[in-house]
Amino acid sequence: SAFQCKTHPNINRGLWTEESVLSHRDQAKSFPVGNELGVLKWRLPSGSESMLPISVSCWPSAVGNNVTVNLEYESASHLEVSNLRIVVPCPSQATISDVAEGDARYLSKNGTVEWRVELVDDSNRSGSLEFSVNDCDPESLFPIQVTFVCKGNLAEMSIAGVSDARSGKALTFSGDPLLEVEEYQIQ
């Protein structure tokens, strides 16, 4: 797998490595009940873009000092992407001419064009935005920041069961897998 996993210091690493079981390393102790506690983290290192649930492309074309920018997102993932936000630095006033999905606006206070798509699912696996900027060097439109949230996870990990470490008795549990972007930049 391309994912790098890291366990909480109180996890029995041998049991995790050999059997993919998360258990307290000291069987006399337990994890707090009713409180959220991260016991396993995993990350997808840079260079693994093919696994991302969404990809974003930017195509600036300059004519003199005027730049027309075409942005596109595509999702080939089975995951629903929500709160997609694409932010492009923009040194001067932008004119938005076409938004195929979501909403876009120029934020003069931030000097950015912000494109938001509330939900990306089977009905809109791709979308595009076109805007133009006067007196602009295409290089000044980068880096582009991308953020989004997905229910589920790319690693396709799931919790098969939860049991009491002392008795082995199966316990009732719930889990809500959620993927959040730490950093996604287009240079």
UniProtKB/TrEMBL annotation:
The way it spans or sits in the membrane comes to: Peripheral membrane protein
Report the protein name in the record.
Answer: Coatomer subunit delta
Similarity remark: Belongs to the adaptor complexes medium subunit family. Delta-COP subfamily.
SUPFAM superfamilies per record:
Second domain of Mu2 adaptin subunit (ap50) of ap2 adaptor
What's a GO biological-process term for it? Golgi localization
User: Subunit comment for this entry?
Assistant: Oligomeric complex that consists of at least the alpha, beta, beta', gamma, delta, epsilon and zeta subunits.
Q: What does this protein do?
A: The coatomer is a cytosolic protein complex that binds to dilysine motifs and reversibly associates with Golgi non-clathrin-coated vesicles, which further mediate biosynthetic protein transport from the ER, via the Golgi up to the trans Golgi network. Coatomer complex is required for budding from Golgi membranes, and is essential for the retrograde Golgi-to-ER transport of dilysine-tagged proteins.
Give the MHD domain ranges: 1-187
Cellular component terms (Gene Ontology) = COPI vesicle coat; Golgi membrane
Keywords, alphabetical: Cytoplasm, Cytoplasmic vesicle, ER-Golgi transport, Golgi apparatus, Membrane, Protein transport, Transport
User: What is the first-listed, main subcellular location in coarse terms?
Assistant: cytoplasm
Q: Where in the cell is it found?
A: Cytoplasm; Cytoplasmic vesicle, COPI-coated vesicle membrane; Golgi apparatus membrane
